[in-house]
Amino acid sequence: MQRRQFLQASLLASTGLHLTDAELLKTAVLPDPKPDKLPRWRGFNLLEKFVAGTTGPEPSGPYEERDFEWIANWGFNFVRLPMSYHCWSTPNPAQWTQINERVMKEVDEAVDFGKKYGIHVNLNLHRIPGYCVNPPAEPLNLWTDERALEAAVFHWKYLAERYKGRPNREVSFDLINEPNTDEANYVRVITALVEGIRSVDPDRLIIADGLQYGNQPVFKLANLKIGQSTRGYLPMNVSHYKAEWVPMLKDAPEPTWPANWMKMTWDRSTLQKNTIEPWKKLQRQGVGIHVGEWGCYNKTPHDVALRYMEDHLKLWKSAGWGWALWNFRGAFGILNSERTDVTYKDFQGMQLDEKMLNLLRRY
């Protein structure tokens, strides 16, 4: 057994998990993705560049190599890096084309970690010039202001030049996180970003999030030969119970699974109808599908969260789609999630949710 497989087996044994030699070897090889058929990548979102620091235009820090090692050794092969351009640039439109090279080297390092540990790295602009799903609002509007669109194209062309030559099995681009606009504006903006990237790196694998915060497939993008990314947060009263940033759920009752939401009973068949079938229709038009974010906030009862998550996982496995849990370390993740109803296992200084890890590894 090679060193990589030995380390995997040792780590799994320490958490009470086991893989056969054949399964260990399979995790070490990254597939070659195609926009019309994305691999069933499985992994996590890593948040080191999710927002700039609160004391100024500084990021929260470099990515952690140990995260990549643990993710790989547990048998996963994908990380999505939702990033704010504020980490390496500035919110001032007059300076949108300035780049902090030191910060970008930390992103380079994450891509190198992915290559080292056999993990595909998906770069996403969670905050792009002119738009972010989270506050604060951008000074200009990406969907209506050409200056914002020009800056957005600039940043993606910059990234395309930086990672030109990296094979698609190692790195891909996810253009805009969870857009909220009309279809015509979205198609226009995505087309401009794709054209900008391909002017630098014609063969780069590109993925676009669906509309309505990632939940709605966009059929008018199918001719661009790019993949699309969906979400796994419905119904929201289960996935985001007591989430402080969702005011509409402030007084929601404690969730169950199956659940009641928007005057409808939600179970696996409801998920199939509302979150799988529309995307399967898009898939039949030659568009590869991946689930870029999903999970349950730590206020959702753990047993409810696990049942809810398992139904999603079963559906995605049946569809042949991969997924990336939000997040790895933190309130949605398997490490340090701070749930009050979980007996954690100490794992190298982290609090590990073994039940959730076991569930994810089965699918």
TrEMBL record:
Keywords: Carbohydrate metabolism, Cellulose degradation, Glycosidase, Hydrolase, Polysaccharide degradation. One of its GO terms (cellular component) is extracellular region. One of its GO terms (molecular function) is beta-glucosidase activity. One of its GO terms (biological process) is cellulose catabolic process. It holds the Pfam family Cellulase. The keyword Cell cycle does not apply. Residues 65-328 form the Glycoside hydrolase family domain. SUPFAM superfamilies: (Trans)glycosidases. InterPro entries: GH, Glyco_hydro_5, Glycosyl_hydrolase_5. Belongs to the glycosyl hydrolase 5 (cellulase A) family. This is Cellulase family glycosylhydrolase.
